[in-house]
Structure formats: C-alpha cells, structure tokens
Amino acid sequence: AMASAVLTTGIGVAQQRGLYEAESAPEMRKAVCPRDGPLAPPRGVTCPDSGGVRVGAVDTPTTTSQAIATATAGDSLHALDEVAELISARAFGIASVKTGELVAGSAVDETLNIASISKVLTFLTVFEYMKRESSGVATLLKKTVRVSTAAASVKGGTHAALRSGDNMLIHDLLYAMMLPSGNDAATALAEVFGKRMLAAESRAVVSADGAGVSVGRFVKEMNRVARRHGLDSIKVYNPHGMRSTKNNKANVRDVIRLMELAVQNPVFVEVYGTKGYSCRVKNLAVVRIVTWRNTNDMLWGAADGITCEGGKTGWIPNVHGQRVWGSLATIVSRKVAGAVDAQPERYIIVVLGCKSRKRRFLDSRVLARWAYGCVADAAKRPDGDAVLEANEAGEG
Length: 396
Hints:
By secondary structure, the protein is of the alpha+beta class. It has twelve helices and 13 strands. The protein has helices at 13-23, 26-29, 64-70, 118-132, 137-141, 149-152, 170-178, 183-200, 212-228, 252-262, 266-272, 357-372; strands at residues 54-55, 58-59, 91-96, 102-106, 112-113, 144-146, 167-169, 249-250, 276-283, 286-293, 306-319, 322-334, 345-354. α4 (118-132) runs parallel beside α8 (183-200), α4 (118-132) packs across α9 and α4 (118-132) crosses α10 (252-262). The longest helix has 18 residues, at 183-200.
C-alpha cells in the first residue's frame, strides 16, 4: 500500500488564517479578471507526462489511477490539521501527477455531488466513442452537427447561449461545454453521440428534437466508461451535472482518477486550460461569432510561482444541507527553483462542497500553497493573485 507523504509549511494556524483572511478581503473580492478578446482555435498540444519514478528498489505506480487503486482503507491521509480549518470544502484531495501519490486529503471516500465536474466524464465518453468509429477522431471533430430545440432549451443553469438550429463543429461544442460550463452544449453532445450509439446498435434512431432516448443512451455509456476505468463511486444521471430528479455523485478519490485520465487526452489538455475561445456559428442564413470565457478563475493570476494549468468548475445550490455547493478539479504546477530545464512539479487538487463559488478557488489556492510549502509568506499577498469573480450564473 502507498504511504502518504507529510508536507510541512513552517508556519502556524494563526499565520495561515491571516493569509486566508487577506485573500478574502472585500477589496480583493471586487477584483475582475481581464477578458481575452476573440481567440483563434488553439493548436494541438502534447499530452503531459505522467510516467512513474523509481524509488529505491520499488517501482512507484505509473499513473495516479494505479497509485490510488493500490491504497487501502488503512492508509492514513494527512488531513492538513494546520490548514483544515481554513478550508470550506466538505471534502478535498491533493495528488502528485508525477508519482500518482495521494499526498493528503479529507473525506476522500465520501460520495458527494460533483455538479459540472460531470462534464469531464462527458468529454471522455465522447472521445472513447469517437475512437471506436471507423471515421476516426480527427474527422469527427470537424463534423458539423445541428443543435436541437431540446438542447438549446437547457438554460436552467450555466449555458453557452446556444440556439435551436445552430450548426456547429463537434470541436467547438466541446469548448462550449467546458469553458462556460454549457449545460446546453453537454446536452447537444449527448444527443449527437447517443443517436450514433443507438444507430450502431440497430435500434430506433430518435429525431433531433425528440432526444430524450438518445441522451439516456449516452448517460448509460458515461456510467459504463466510469465502471470500465474503476471509478466505482461515480454515478451520473445526466451529461451536465445540473439538478435533476437525482444528482450526479462521486468521491474525491475518483474525481482525481478522472482528471488523471482526462489529461492523457491532448484535446482535453488543449481545451481545459484555454481562457477564452471564439468560433463561427451558422443558423439558417445568419452567421454569428460567439465567444466563451472559462469559468475557472484559477487560470488568471499566479502566486509563489504556482500556475493553474486548467480544470473544471462546478456549483449547485441546496444540496447536502448547504445553500451553495461549489466544487473544482484542477491541476497546478510550479517550476523547480534554479532548474531551468526541469519539469514542473504538478498536483491534482480536488475540492467538493465549498461554501461559495469563490471559495472553491480560495480553497484550492490554499491547498496548492500547502502542497508546495509556500504559505510561509503569509503577511504578503503576491501581485496578480486576485480573488476573482466567477461568471457562472446558475447550477452546473
């Protein structure tokens, strides 16, 4: 079984509380992110390395999934006693991307609402299906699909402002789902690929505007993908995470595993770290330019050399006895001081059940600083590390 490493910050609770209060100050809460202008579709990037390392005579598991899978219930997870009282999240976890080690966490096995973090699984399900089709991923990403009336009407939470009859590339729909956390885009993708799954099974193909069956088929596939990768705590009932008769749930361990799987996909890495994205959408004879901004405010600003590579936000009201339930799954990195060519240290940080949308970013920053041992500079708040106003307007 894997033993957890102990990280120390070198400062006490009072100092760290001072840091947190500084980050929560009213003047900082008013800070606004700069908004990028229209961006061209990004070029492909190389998937980050997640190879294992050798420690003594024992090989460390090569992926986060393998490492966490080897952990037993008896392993101790350090609950960050010195900073735990600063964290509003109901559950959290920190894992090393390089070694796969679950470094620290609290309530990591409690099954909780994951809201729009569900869209990471939606993304993976789309890609796993595209890889099985003979036309191939590259061809399907360039395929134009029509947004149905049913998908365009999903406006009860965060959305990408899609309209019935919009004709879009599947590539662009992925951005529409991930950046503004578009529940309408997630539904559109579920319809498109649910229909393809039904057709491949020689079952009745539903019409574009009668898409309930196709979405249900896609959600069934999402749960199959989760089981296939050993993500046993994940159970989803819709492709977006918005409130329905039942809520999409998972535990922190499996969200970490999910993120580790996702960043092995170069297109996911391309999308999840993009601040803003613009594309052309045609509807009948009208062509419009749409621009989406990433809801992950961790992407703006850096502190102590810590950079957010990307992630997925989520929030939903009135679950688990909380008025607001904010969540975030993100990956942070920091260059090793004095090592020009060294690969950065990278951590997956997951917080579930933060008490506001802003607190999911605050909690993640505190945990990132703890992971890198940077919280000793409690009296000074680095420039650019502003607490940013989330632009999410509803559940998702």
